[in-house]
Amino acid sequence: MTLDDLYTPCLIVDKKKLTNNIAKMRAQASKLGVTLRPHVKTAKSVPVALMCAGGAVGPITVSTLREAEYFADAGFKDIIYAVSMVPAKLDRAKDIIDRGVDLKMIVDSAEIAKQISDAGAKYHRVYKIMVEIDVDMHRAGLSPDAPELIDVARALHDGAGTELAGVLTHAGESYHCKTKKEMIAAAEAERTSITRAADNIRAAGLPCEIVSCGSTPTATFAKDLTGVTELRAGVFVFNDLFQAGLGVCDKDDIALSVLTTVISHKKNQNRIITDAGGMALSKDHSTRGTDFDCGYGLIADMSGHIIGNLYVLGANQEHGLITSQDGSKIDFHRFPIGSKLRILPNHACMTAAAFDQYNIIDGTDEITETWQRCNGW
Amino acid sequence: MTLDDLYTPCLIVDKKKLTNNIAKMRAQASKLGVTLRPHVKTAKSVPVALMCAGGAVGPITVSTLREAEYFADAGFKDIIYAVSMVPAKLDRAKDIIDRGVDLKMIVDSAEIAKQISDAGAKYHRVYKIMVEIDVDMHRAGLSPDAPELIDVARALHDGAGTELAGVLTHAGESYHCKTKKEMIAAAEAERTSITRAADNIRAAGLPCEIVSCGSTPTATFAKDLTGVTELRAGVFVFNDLFQAGLGVCDKDDIALSVLTTVISHKKNQNRIITDAGGMALSKDHSTRGTDFDCGYGLIADMSGHIIGNLYVLGANQEHGLITSQDGSKIDFHRFPIGSKLRILPNHACMTAAAFDQYNIIDGTDEITETWQRCNGW
Prior knowledge:
homodimer, 377 residues
């Protein structure tokens, strides 16, 4: 089976690019002396997670308990669920732990820490919990110097049903950096903040074994991770246009694309219409407003070569509207109705989520493998 | 099982609102003397499609062949696939037709019409094809007065493997109307354009049985559909914030919401964080830039009452960031970590697509039914 035989829209993964992206991040973690704990939320696929540990079952980060269950089914044993835990979700966590998984969860509230401990004690379990740290006002977590940090850490350490496993942060504001220099600075700020949080916990006489940080930009540009034990990053496996716009990767490093079919020509509007709309590409518009605006995606030919000047201007539910970025006339003869194109995504995590599987190519147009992914919660 | 027992994020459908939304559109079609052919792309769920024909199997519109297959499995026999057909997809269409489905497809190119006819002749099939008409420069289709319209119609009529089944349009630009008056005008413009296309085809000595038009705004506000045979609309079943912003419905008519759990308080940023992020809500931001900006959604309590002044400011992959629209202080005691909220979506079609099923409520917090939906292609 080749690309031309696939029903569109569908996902294509270029295995050479995927392999190269993963090798670079593995080399970076190795150089900095930290464990790479990939965030599998991007690909949500066992073969990709295995590649991240050189073909082995390694430590992973998940964004949903569904992912934890799916990867546990495949034999993954060391998992951090990196979204704030609430007591109502403990039943599923308990089942995962009872299958032999070393599952670690995160909280940023002493009250919730206590509730989780009470639940653990009731079920004769000791849940491993990390404290989420906020290093850049991006999302959840406690500031490294907040007095509540010690309250939460102590509640976890003293609780009969919990064990304080460490600290975790995600420097998500690095997505707003404009230059490589700013990303290097964001990485160093992430390191100093997370290690200060760990030091503050230890200074209070409490343990802090795992010191976990990361985002694809800061993981890529970190120069020193002294005091950090592990590095998390997700989108690096595929990369995407948003990352290319940041300078984290080159457009040619993007391993994921949506295969689509030209279904209509609107010559009076200088538009090609394809069958990859908002459902297939997602409505992520994250490059908009930047000087790297790619609309809903850039266009490549079947070989993966980017066709300069074309982009997805609009995305209705099942229609993608392609036009030229500078208003120049499209040569419609190059793109007959029925021919196929590949669309590079703004945001790989969101785009991949519409699909159940990846079609893998490796140097030719032959589909060498199909890999499943898990969606939902 | 009640709302409080559900694992979040998940979809909730208020059956009373759904029933009322459908009753209104059925009454509108009846009043105007046209067949209602709901576009099932929004709910993608058999029970909802059945409600649209008063509990019966009625005519439907689909946006993917996967939907056509799913609804064929449930006994639906009269289906229009309303995305431009290409020859490479005919194999699946043929299988659907061979199951006894009266499947109609659309094209806007004489060359493709000929290719489909050749394929039909080869497989001893006569494919029913409609010509897509462009009434407002929104997407695909031919202008009602374009000479190519007659070329395509004639190719379909004369082709050994095709039958000219009619004309179809979607007045998608009605989504950009600002007032009820503009929507009434858009509906009338849609009617005059599609009936002119039909008249032009008939004037050329060709048949044009089906004259199909619609969008939720034009279907809602049409005053007269003389010459039109059927009305299509999709999102009306659930409605959403974008439609409420247009004035097509009231916010209290929105039947779909995402149930979510509060997972963190960021008091220093006046934010509540929930477990419904971009994956659960979609990245659709279609109310942005309007005077009805709802961020990524408005917030309701467990009873479905909208909590004034709160909205989803940001949507990371699995985190929703809620704050107040006017900067006023959130009363965090009202929304403890672990408590649940319901989020009204900007765009119901996109939001529902992340989920496999709907949890139905009908006047209380009890889940009375769960309905499956079909995703993908």
